[in-house]
Amino acid sequence: MTSIVTSIFQNVREYVAVPRVTALRLSPDATRLVAVVQSLDPDEKAYGTALWEIPLDPDAEPYRLTRSAKGEAGAEFTPDGELLFVSRRPDPTEKDSDSEAAALWLLPERGEPRRLATRPGGIGAVRAGGDAIVYAAQVLPGDSATEADRRKARKDAGVSAVLYDDYPIRYWDHDLGPAQPRLFTLDGTELTPDPGRALDQASFDVTPDGSTVVTTWRIPTGAGTSRSELVALAGGERRVLATSEAHDFTGPVRISPDGRQVACLRERHGTIERSFAFEVWLIDLTTGEGRPLAGDIFPMALAWGSDCLYVAADHQGRRPIFQISLDGGDPIRLTPDDGAYAELNAAPDGSLYALRGAIDAAPAPVRIAPDGTLEYLPTPTPAMELPGTLTEVSAMAEDGTEIRGWLILPEGACAENPAPFLLWIHGGPVSSWNDWSWRWNPWIMAAHGYAMLLPDPCLSSGYGQAMLDRGWGDWGPATFGDLMAITDAALKLPEIDDQRTAAMGGSFGGYMANWVAGHTDRFKAIVTHASLWNLDQFAGTTDAAMFWQREWGEPGGPISRRLSPHQTLDKITTPMLVIHGDKDYRVPIGEALSLWWDLRRSEVDSQFLYFPDEGHWILKPGNVIAWYDTVLTFLYRHVEPAFEPPAVSGLIDLGERWPTR
């Protein structure tokens, strides 16, 4: 195993080079465990992925299974234990093979990978059952057999235009179209000819006998809105399993080992009067009869046991695994620790394999015994010594609700040497500080001297429906009250300097950072990333307009006017750093451009860090380094930690870096 690294969070260049485990798959006989691992490419300009074998012996070493310049992902086992994956790697059996489209490959336990299937638009997700292998592929509208010629014709004609008839047209960081997702079997049989946009972001599974595919299916409902059903595909027919005008049936979709039932998530549509809600939904594949399977929990991952369902659900700043009986009854918590579990894989002996992360632990493969006993397995991610301590804090909101959060104190913080304070507001808004984040890592800030408060205010997941109800349709005022209550409590600690304070957040956290800027001058600096500024403008440009319209009403209505941070521009005096990526379709760049212009014309001390080639998240290694460098420099200017500033990469022009002391 790799030895402990002691300075990884102080040097962002070293931090971005740490390999990360992103997915985990267990073979049907539970003899093999394979992970998808992300690591820096040799030129250090991008990340690539590869498949790694995770030994089931805790004393063994993990080892890499695949190597190619294009990388490998989408690991999935067939019922007989062969390993499937997708990759853009060239096929060595073909002359001058250098396709940019991802193909489906098979890696036998012994031997070289061989290509199983290709599509002109590439292959995405893959699932297997019985003798059937089913994969998703992006296909231009029309006959899939002639797609290659039609793609070539578009390319030769220099056409990139897409003509839409309905909404949506984009998703997070990519366009929807002109190709449409379709499902195929390995022999090329098309299961979903001409589906339109029904399979956008679809989750699907295959029955153990390979006879049926169950998938989510999006249908338009008029006026730019849509909802998602669950359907079964078999014998050339599509049968609706679950549908409701007031709900979406969403992934993950998981079919039981006996092929008789399917589990998924059911989302109740929010309205102006009522918050949206999630529940685990169980459906009989023969009759289509469905019922809820768990109480007031916020499910995130599902896996079938032999006679139960395992659910990883947000809960009180953690994400434990619950065991749910099919006969009803309350969920039984299986993992009692502070972990956040994902990538659940059930073994025949009743044990579970999963990735366990936490605020203070990077995701790592673990084995969980039926009694909840935890055993760590070898991992390609090195052990990392954390530059501080993690504690849990709480405060009472005005309505008597307990607001809890995580507090990180940097090394050396004490009453004689109090640390500067940084309030970090999570995104979502329905989310929780409960897991490790490679992208937004508070330990980097702790390594540079900051005490970090990671609170879960109203609208946070894992506290029951009442916590969502408290902030539904009241984003700014309700959340602001919760954030200030727990901030006040944290600032009373002698280890924290209540005079050197800052706040930051991204997405919804950025919205709240903007709201904070317009409603208090208590902070010395504010960092706002991918933030909402003018809600009427945002509502018409985001990729998910119908979701927000359900909560706020139509653009220009009283709710969006009341909750829009731009209404208090004249109250902002705190220095602000605005950060945004041009390819962000969830919170489009217009929000940052509008905010930036408003700050400049108001002569607020501010800077704008712009990423022309990034989306909602900043993902390229060089840009990640520039992000942290800029944020740390900005905070140093205005908050001044009690030590020397970090070494700045020099990759971007920051102007005069340090104030005269």
UniProtKB/TrEMBL annotation:
The keyword Signal applies. One of its GO terms (molecular function) is serine-type endopeptidase activity. Residues 436-639 form the Peptidase S9 prolyl oligopeptidase catalytic domain. The keyword Ribosomal protein does not apply. SUPFAM superfamilies: alpha/beta-Hydrolases (SSF53474), DPP6 N-terminal domain-like (SSF82171). It comes from the Bacteria. GO terms for biological process: proteolysis. InterPro entries: 6-blade_b-propeller_TolB-like, AB_hydrolase_fold, Peptidase_S9_cat. Keywords: Hydrolase, Signal. This is Peptidase S9. It comes from Acrocarpospora pleiomorpha.
